[in-house]
Amino acid sequence: MDFEPSDEQQMLIDQVRxxxxxxxxxxxxxxxxxASELPPEDFKRLTxxxxxxxxxxxxxxxxxxxxxxxxVTRVLLAIEMAQHRAGLYVxxxxxxxxxxxxxxxxxxxxxxxxxxxxxxxxxxxAFFGLTEPSGGSDPARAIQTKAERKDNGWxxxxxxxxxxxxxxxxxxxxFARTDASKxxxxxxxxxxxxxxxxxxxxxxxxxLRSSHYATELEFKDCWVSDHQVLGEVNKGFAVANDRxxxxxxxxxxxxxxxxxxxxEMAIEWAKMRSTFGEKLAxxxxxxxxxxxxxxxxxxxKHFTLEAAEKARRGLPFRIEASIAKLTASEGxxxxxxxxxxxxxGMGMTKDLPLERWYREMRIRRVxxxxxxxxxxxxxxxxxxxxxx
Amino acid sequence: MSLRLRLDKPWxxxxxxxxxxxxxxxxxxxxxxxxxxxxxxxxxxxxxPFGLRSELQREFAERGPGCQFRVEVNQQxxxxxxxxxxxHQADHGSLPVDNAKNPPPNLGRLSPS
Lengths: 388, 113
Prior knowledge:
The complex is a heterodimer. By secondary structure, chain A is of the alpha+beta class. Chain A has helices at about 5-30, 40-50, 70-80, 110-120, 140, 235-270, 285-315, 320-345, 355-365, 370-385; strands at about 125-130, 145-150, 155-165, 170-175, 185-195, 200-205, 215-225, 230, 275, 280. A four-stranded antiparallel β-sheet of chain B has the order 1-4-2-3.
């Protein structure tokens, strides 16, 4: 596979790189170091700009009005969009728009009218409710939220945790157990309006990621009609699983973007900073750290583009997505750590973005399936699917 | 085990001396009138030169005597600040009067138990 960007891809990369450097980074200098949102007037101005660039809503499929950019190019652009302080979790502060939750594209026409199209118009936001206090890595077994039949609908009872955006969203996709006897074949996906009686956002869950926080949800006799079932009853696990695999590719791209930005900072600093009469860049200890950074970045980028290319061709990419997520999140964490070491005391301060990346990058080894689960996925593939 | 949602430490009078004694750390704070009605929920972020001390000194300089305050040192000052605002809104139906003048964009909703 040839991963050299085409002329057209390079033009888009350059365009987004300029946007990040000329529009986003200067604004960040005025924001709190942990901020995840722009002032509304800046957000509006920059959103108009990305629309004029033809890159707004780049993850939206063409048939729904998206700009028809393939997944490999989107990965290359996602790497660029992440190269600023808030870039890991809020690339370009959302000014390139979002596609909403991938599952909603599979909704029936009535649900698309009520949820998908308003989301694409920017009128509604959604959350993804899968993880529970009982666990998130093994949803087939961990889901304890129950949905029981009642009055031509379903009554949900249970809890979810580590759910982003639930306090701000108008609706969410929630997975609940509809048949306790069937394991993964007993899970159903529901669309829940956030003003439904019995739906509660109980608290903010404080983590290393200080700004783009998660929440804890409770469902207490929360009744929804049959019209809120997404897909088929007892077939929700496939919906969740598909999303989890697909999401690993852009997740990896974000890690690579931050790693590149940290690495570039470390190179610049090493060339500039002297200790004991010698530039850091001339010291082998520092050179080797920079070399290891380069190797980690190139490795992660190769595997992430390989996964994207297989997805683009319509080939199976489950193992490739896991390798991408694993190498990018673990390698990216090492790169940021080395960049901090090279920067010395300054690397620990909130004056530089490194400490925020360090905290947020740590989460990436757990989010979207921890490293150990990715290794399990890869092991099953190489040793045979009967290995359980 | 979850952290306490509400900031319920005892109030202290807001004076030049009490503000001067505060740590230069990151965190959140509340300002109340003499009766304990919360007027403002603030944060001491990384751009505050001396963290909570700077913010409360500024508050005293702007508000003068007669107010009370309480603080919480917290590295997660952003998410804690959003949480305190949402909890106040859930408890009282609105933001504190001085936050309502300039509310943060896209503030979410909580329904704490």
